[in-house]
Amino acid sequence: MAASAAPVSPAGLSVTTSALPALTPAELAATPSAPVSLAFSSFFDDLTRQVQAKPVPWDGYVRASMISAADVAMIQAYEQESRQGKKDLLAAQSDAYAALLLRLLGALVREETVQYLLALVDQILDENEAFAVALFKQSQSDPSLPLAPFLKLLQKDEVYAALAVSKIISFLLCTSPRPVEPNVATDIFDHLVKLLSHKNANIVDFAVQIAQSLLSKVDLRVPFFDFQGGKLVSSLINVLMTQTSPQTQYQVLFCLWNLSFEPDVAKEIQNQFNIIPTLVDVAKGANKEKVIRMVLAFFRNLIHHAPYENTVPMIGSKLLPFLDVLRQRKLQDTDLVDDVDALQQHLREALQRLSTFDEYSGEVRSGKLEWSPAHESENFWKQNANKLAEHDSELARILARQLMTATDPTVLAVAAHDLGQFVKYYPAGKKLLQEVGAKHRLMEMMNHENAEVRYHALVAVQKLMSQSWDL
């Protein structure tokens, strides 16, 4: 038999984690319990069983002096034990097994072997959360541990490794007694974006659960929100709009709710993603109370941390009428009832303070245009048309964008009408509508299949072509 191989250190791996000082005994003792939201997936479990069914050529590794016979003996001893025997073995030799598994993951590259080792680490952590402490202890001999071998594997495209390593890293980050290093967060976030955009719905569902776990770590929330200009949040919103599973919707909303506890996020999320009208639509279409509850819990956090930024968009998105309908139902969830009552009270009080133009601007920003009184009031337009040109013509540009993107005939008709009124009482706005393509789009809409859209497009074009004193 070949002589025992010398231990292989993963310290030289090409990964982005920096060499922090080893964890102190006090920090190790403070390692928190794993979050309850760590991923559960029958799809992942099936892949794991397939991995575990494949033989690993341990004898070949020994003959090649890549690992030692003692290493193989430790692995086989663990595999041959009963479930309780495995727990007892780890309780007695957790540090030795942690060192072994990290060393092998850093040294071996064959796909089936790496899959096997990831499955083994994942299984151990699922059944024995305290094993995380043993993994963290390895930083005392190498500060890049325990993350380095797993971060290296984020570069793999193979499905099982991509899922297993994301689950293990999220576990370690969530149980670490230290804040997450920015470069480590960047690596896992970048990996998560790829998983969230995958064509396989099972992989997307798994990725949402990983995001849910990561966001249980408070110091990851703002970096998560800021990552690549909001790419992760955009990915979550896209999942919310394309996945029909109530459970997946609930988990995405749970992620957003976790983010909403951060005041800076609560101030920016509506402005950056126009998320309030999207979630109002999700709640209206939901057939599970838990989905509605998460939407309203998210909204309640927004008005608690950032009422100025979020109250008007909620009013403009017609949230209050929806809450009134909800309150008439026999709701089973007491938390949902509390949220409905709190939001109703806040929005009703806000309505009493808001001007007509505040309500109008909230409606325009929400994209949910309808024939509310302000649109058809000549006095409103005489007093407020110029305000559509404020802040770099923000509201006028939103209306113009609605002409290009909306499909609802009422939205198109109202947007065309409002832009006609805008240039009637603010003739300088004609140049803007020409520049942004709204004039051309209005002329196209004169041939729209809907009679109301055709009429308001025609009237708006007439106003654009006329001199202001002729109107």
TrEMBL record:
Residues 354-469 form the ATPase V1 complex subunit H C-terminal domain. The keyword Nucleus does not apply. The keyword tRNA processing does not apply. SUPFAM superfamilies: ARM repeat. Pfam families: V-ATPase_H_C (PF11698), V-ATPase_H_N (PF03224). GO terms for molecular function: proton-transporting ATPase activity, rotational mechanism. GO terms for cellular component: fungal-type vacuole membrane; vacuolar proton-transporting V-type ATPase, V1 domain. It comes from the Eukaryota. Keywords: Hydrogen ion transport, Ion transport, Transport. V-ATPase is a heteromultimeric enzyme made up of two complexes: the ATP-hydrolytic V1 complex and the proton translocation V0 complex. Belongs to the V-ATPase H subunit family. Subunit of the V1 complex of vacuolar(H+)-ATPase (V-ATPase), a multisubunit enzyme composed of a peripheral complex (V1) that hydrolyzes ATP and a membrane integral complex (V0) that translocates protons. V-ATPase is responsible for acidifying and maintaining the pH of intracellular compartments. This is V-type proton ATPase subunit H.
